[in-house]
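Need a sequence for this fold. Nothing fancy.
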């Protein structure tokens, strides 16, 4: 029985080794911020870009790699009830013609606009909704493909698959 498990482990090893040929990281970069007052509501907007870094840790150069990413943005709207957040999915892709062994490439994601709003102290919404709202990044998921074969993956937070689906 142990021999069969060892054989299965050795068969699965090449697929695992191939998936670990790439190291993927994403660094958050803040862009311009603006603020304005509209009546009793103070609104702030901030741009966000993720810089995706892909490094080829394998021994051979990689050809025709496609990086696809999905950013999950939690949207809150003034006056809505607590817990009625909406998730917006922003998709993008980046093609890499060649990535030599030990080399890396960095590319920016699409810009995400995060909004913040707050009612002045003596104001409230008649329906009892939130007087303060904050958009936020719920997660980012990056997948690397060679053709239609998945060769690398990154997600932050690590449990992203329990909350969202790749579409």
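Here you go.
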């Amino acid at each position: 029985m142990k021999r069969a498990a060892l054989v299965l482990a050795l068969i699965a090893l090449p697929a695992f080794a191939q998936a670990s040929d790439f190291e993927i990281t994403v660094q958050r970069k803040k862009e311009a911020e603006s603020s304005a007052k509209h009546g009793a509501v103070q609104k702030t907007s901030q741009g966000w870009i993720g810089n995706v870094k892909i490094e080829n840790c394998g021994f051979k150069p990689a050809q025709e790699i496609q990086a696809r990413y999905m950013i999950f943005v939690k949207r809150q709207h003034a006056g809505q009830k607590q817990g009625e957040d909406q998730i917006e999915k922003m998709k993008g892709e980046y093609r890499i013609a060649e990535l030599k062994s030990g080399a890396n490439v960095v590319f920016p994601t699409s810009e995400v606009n995060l909004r913040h709003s707050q009612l002045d102290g003596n104001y409230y919404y008649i329906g009892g909704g939130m007087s303060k709202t904050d958009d936020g990044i719920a997660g980012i998921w990056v997948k690397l493909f060679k053709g239609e074969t998945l060769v690398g993956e990154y997600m932050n937070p690590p449990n992203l698959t329990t909350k969202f689906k790749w579409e």
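For context: Strands lie at 22-38, 41-56, 62-75, 86-99, 104-108, 112-119, 132-134, 136-146, 149-156.
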